């Protein structure tokens, strides 16, 4: 079987049937990475030595007829803002250029119990701030389908690694669409779980009330396999929930009758003027295919989501400003001045000034402003009230429907450099994904076709009720089958 055609499920079956070894597949992945990644730039660092040990451990379990979990030996790529002990964790920032993680993120610890193989750390927008992976301090990742275009962001390296066939799956983080948008642009599947479904412990924080770790994979079923492994309660993250500790069996192999019984809402605010014709055509194709399953559709309204982008760009920078204050060159971050400079203020000024990139500085300044005396009530407090209205809109819609279907992004992947001088245009790329994060809901990006009318991948978004990942995963799985 060709590496590009290998899924996590088919890999697991082949491993148990001894059609190949985990070591052989890992070595094939590194061969592809060495040959093709110099033009794609999906990885910031690779971990071949430790990956070989992990693959050999999985092969040993197969040889001994031990229990072999679904992800045993599966080669995954990990976004470089998620900690793996002993490996670099730069968050694609100069300020963490020399940082090596001293502990495992909870999701990594869970995957290690599954005997997963970690190929390395993938490129992203610096501190996950961006929609194109052009904000990385180290390199620009390119879309494997068209090297002149972006892979999306901020988890662009993870999406590109899966789309290029370098890895069978990956982990990313999603604060305002950073898993779903790159998945759509690269023609792969990306799941943003319910807020609290997956522990954030060991993920470098950007906006703590919005961040969520999730899987990127070749198929919906593969995404479900990864999600099942990483979901659950964690004492190291007070926002995590134990819901999936007792509901994980719902995530795989849902009965078709259950999926047919679901009603899908089409929110009119997501089908707006200015959306690329290729995206509109792709949404129509997705709806028509799902109708062949007998699924019923109805129009719904989310009247306050038009304020989501404005709301997000107040709340997110405020939380980012607070979270990034820790990178000061004292305990965290690269100290930029010998002997600490003349005083502490100079140390901070030089360390942050030279260590952070332009987009990170922009968001820190904006966030500090909206939290400052005299502006907190006018901006931050008001944005939180609007956030509550947006959440209420979703709650009302879900009284009459079970799932929402919408575009992931207004356009397919855009050209590298096309929006770098226009931050507002870049921010608009997340207009359809941000409301989900504000409401804390689960959503998945599923490819409509590998090549849409534009010749580029386009994904559609299924949004579920809180904790109902099973609904959107199940519907996505049956969509793929037809």
In terms of topology, how is this protein built?
Layout: H1 8-16, H2 22-40, E1 43-46, H3 48-63, E2 75-79, H4 106-113, E3 117-122, H5 156-163, E4 169-173, H6 180-186, E5 189-192, E6 213-217, H7 220-230, H8 256-260, E7 263-267, H9 277-291, E8 296-300, H10 308-323, H11 344-355, H12 358-371, H13 376-397, E9 403-407, H14 423-427, H15 434-439, E10 443-449, E11 458-464, H16 469-481
Parallel strand pairs: 2-3, 2-4, 7-8, 7-9
Antiparallel strand pairs: 1-3, 4-6, 5-6, 5-10, 9-11, 10-11
Task: Write up what this structure looks like.
It is built from 16 helices and eleven strands. An eleven-stranded mixed sheet has the order 1-3-2-4-6-5-10-11-9-7-8, sandwiched between helices. It has a single domain (1-482), classed as Amidase signature (AS) domain (Amidase signature (AS) enzymes, Alpha-Beta Complex). It is of the alpha/beta class and 482 residues long. Helices cover 39% and strands 12% of the residues. Helix 10 (308-323) packs across helix 13 (376-397). The mean pLDDT is 95.
